[in-house]
Amino acid sequence: MIMDEVGLDLTRHRPHALDDLADSTFDLAITLSPEADAYVREMTKTMAVDLENWNIADPSLIQGSRDQIIDAYRDARDELTKKIKARFE
């Protein structure tokens, strides 16, 4: 629903655990939390990979009304959109 608002259909998307990426090669890893950042830094310590942490507030931790929770997810989506555009455009 939240991503549909901006024209993205994620119905076929399946998330991957960080462990699923351990044998992969990549040039850049962007993490969204301090915990993920620490894990990825350890996972890639012998690799030539650029690391960035964007530390986005986790909307799943929000408590409140349905509207407040949905707004938290929208805020996270919009913050990620801004960061992606700034980083890759």
Brief description of this entry?
This protein is mostly helical. It has helices at residues 34-43, 66-88; strands spanning 28-31, 50-53. The chain is built from 2 helices and 2 strands.
Low-confidence stretches: none
Q: Strand content of the residues, in percent? A: 5-15%
Radius of gyration, taken over Cα atoms and rounded to an integer in Å: 15 Å
- Count of discrete alpha- or pi-helical segments spanning 4 or more residues: 2
The share of residues in helices is: 25-40%
How would you describe the oligomerization state of the chains in this entry? single chain
What characteristic shape results from the CA principal axes?
globular
Number of domains: 2
Strands ordered across the widest β-sheet: 1-2
- The structure class reads mainly alpha
Number of strands: 2
Mean pLDDT: 90
Question: What is the H-and-E element order?
Answer: EHEH
- What composes the largest sheet? 2 strands, parallel
Distance between the terminal alpha carbons, to the nearest Å? 26 Å
Set down the secondary structure blueprint.
Elements: E1 28-31, H1 34-43, E2 50-53, H2 66-88
Fill in the keyword field for this structure.
89 residues, globular
How would you describe what is shown here?
The relative contact order is 0.16. The chain has a two-stranded parallel sheet with strand order 1-2. The model has no long low-confidence stretch (mean pLDDT 90). It has 89 residues and is mainly alpha-helical. It is built from two helices and two strands; from the N terminus they run E-H-E-H. The longest helix has 23 residues. The protein folds into two domains: 40 residues, no CATH class; 33 residues.
